[in-house]
Amino acid sequence: MMAADTPTRAQAARLREPSDSAKSRPRDRAATEAAIVAAAEQLLLRDGWSGLNVNTLAVQAGIDRKLIYRYFEGVEGVVERLAGRLDLWLGETLAAQPPIEATSYREFAREMLTGYLRALRASPLILRLVAWELSEDTPLLRRLETARSAVLQRWTASRRPNLPLPEGVDVVALNVVFLAAVQHLALAATTRDRFAGVTLDDAGWARIEAAIDRMLMAYPA
After folding, report:
1. What is the Cα–Cα distance from 218 to 221, expressed in whole angstroms?
2. Lowest-pLDDT range, 20-29, 85-94, 162-171?
3. Coil/strand/helix, residue 199
4. Residues 87, 152: contact at Cβ < 8 Å?
């Protein structure tokens, strides 16, 4: 004979069903996704890319790790979503730069390089992404680098006055060298206050911008 306090099969089935209150309380997917992306940002700023994985992300966001797979198919999906926001921020930062009134390609290149340097220095999370791209080569990182390059190219195209390219110089190669130098200096400033004998304070950055002027003598005036 069944004990009085033992539930029947029907009662047990009802106990396993969600309560009416739980049924009427749908999960806010948008808010959960936003919390996961925000948690990824916090982890990256605090611990770098090596500190980002499903477990740390779930703990930081205060959610079940299964939701990361359900909404983003894993950490890569979260990073891709975050990178989309970073590309937007970079575009907004670049767009806030003063209008360009260059009358020569040399002046235009200077304003582009110094503008990009200032945008990078204002975006520590983007610098984290750049550092990750330099340390690894994965399909995801290639997609992110391509997306960020497109932001920079659109900004450059929108700002470039109707000036002919300099003749007798390899403009593309020179720009690659200049951009790499600017990017590396911005990265160095995230971990140290000096680089190769130059203190990376306001006076040091002024020296660097003056050096950019000298380097750009490679372009005809």
Report:
1. 9
2. 20-29
3. strand
4. no
Phi, then psi, of 215 in degrees rounded to 5: -65, -35
Question: How far apart (Å, rounded) are the C-alpha atoms in residues 194 and 132?
Answer: 22
Burial 141-171, CB ≥16 within 10 A → b, else e: beebbeebeebbeebbeebeeeeeebeeeee
Write down the residue that tokens 């680089």 correspond to. Answer: 195
Q: What pLDDT digit, counting tens, does each position of 111-165 carry? A: 888 888 888 888 888 888 888 888 888 888 888 888 888 888 888 888 777 878 8
Query: Do the Cβ atoms of 86 and 123 come closer than 8 Å?
Result: yes
The model's pTM is 0.70
Q: Quick check: helix, strand or coil at residue 194? A: strand
Burial code (b: 16+ CB inside 10 Å, e: under 16) for 54-73 equals eebbbebbebeeebbeebbe
What are the CA-CA distances from residue 76 to residues 60, 87, 127 (Å)?
16, 16, 18
Residues in the chain: 221
Tokens 């390059």 belong to 149
